[in-house]
Amino acid sequence: MSIDPVCKKEVDEKNAPGGKVRYWGEVFHFCSEECRKAFRRQPHEYAPEIAEGRGPGYDKARTSETWRT
Ligand SMILES: [Zn+2]
User: Which residue range(s) make up the domain with 25?
Assistant: First the structure.
């Protein structure tokens, strides 16, 4: 299980209903599309320890998303 960084619910990473987002090399799984969208808007809010010292927030070039693969 993995923890949805937005709502802190447990999410099955093999079947995450909200898909997943790779952010600075870390993969986050989401319980819903809403949580995924919230994370995309402000990833540094939900993963401050990861974003720290690594430039401004969400960087498309360094972030990849998998949605319902
Ligand atoms: Zn959630």
Answer: 2-55
Inside any domain, residue 60: no
Measured distance CA(29)–CA(64) in Å, rounded? 12
Ligand 1 midpoint to CA 35 (Å): 5
Provide the domain count of the chain: 1
Could you tell me the pLDDT band of residue 60, with boundaries at 50, 70 and 90?
Answer: low
Give this prediction's pTM: 0.74
Q: 46: CA distance to ligand 1 center in Å?
A: 11
Instruction: Examine residue 61 and state whether it is found in any structural domain, yes or no.
Output: no
Cα 68 to middle of ligand 1, angstroms: 15
Instruction: Answer whether residue 59 shows pLDDT above 60.
Output: no
